[in-house]
Amino acid sequence: MTETTLDVTGQWDGQFSYPHTLMPESFSASLFETGGHVGGTVTERATSGASAGACFIATVQGERNGLHVRFTKTYEDHVHIHAVLYAGTLSADGCEIEGEWRIAGSWSGPFLMIRRAAGGTVAEHRVAETTVSNALSNADCAPVSC
Q: Which domain of life is it from (predicted)?
């Protein structure tokens, strides 16, 4: 792919790492891109802490300019009262986004997103510092009706 044909539209599996000794968290993202504007949803299941096992849904809004991708993740619950800013670089083949997430005035850490290959499996052409795993499927995270 060339920079003019790159597009982040699709299904992604990712992982973000916390600072200190906390375990990384996995997530799934469904992104769309139109004219450089990026939107979509992120689903994640907490694996540790007080929220272990809980499923969280967030919306994403941002932009892609060449290989640079920036978006804000805003949770749709009343547990997370902060937005998370993501800034990363799209690989030349359009299959990975790697960079840093940041909560303003608070924590930050690395993240890696890998585009799902056709058929819904995670592309495994590169191993990151922490492996992106499909072991915890976020697909079964569905909004709970009250």
A: Bacteria
Supply the pLDDT for residue 4.
58
CA distance 72 to 38: 10
Count of domains observed in the chain = 1
Residue 124 within a domain: no
Q: In this predicted structure, what is the pLDDT of residue 117?
A: 82
Look at residue 139 and give its three-state secondary structure: helix
List the CATH number of the domain containing 110.
2.40.128.120
Q: How many CA atoms, within 13 angstroms, populate the side-chain half-sphere of residue 94?
A: 17
> Given pLDDT bands bounded at 50, 70 and 90, which one contains residue 1?
low
- Tokens of residue 122, six digits: 């995670």
**pLDDT on residue 120:** 52
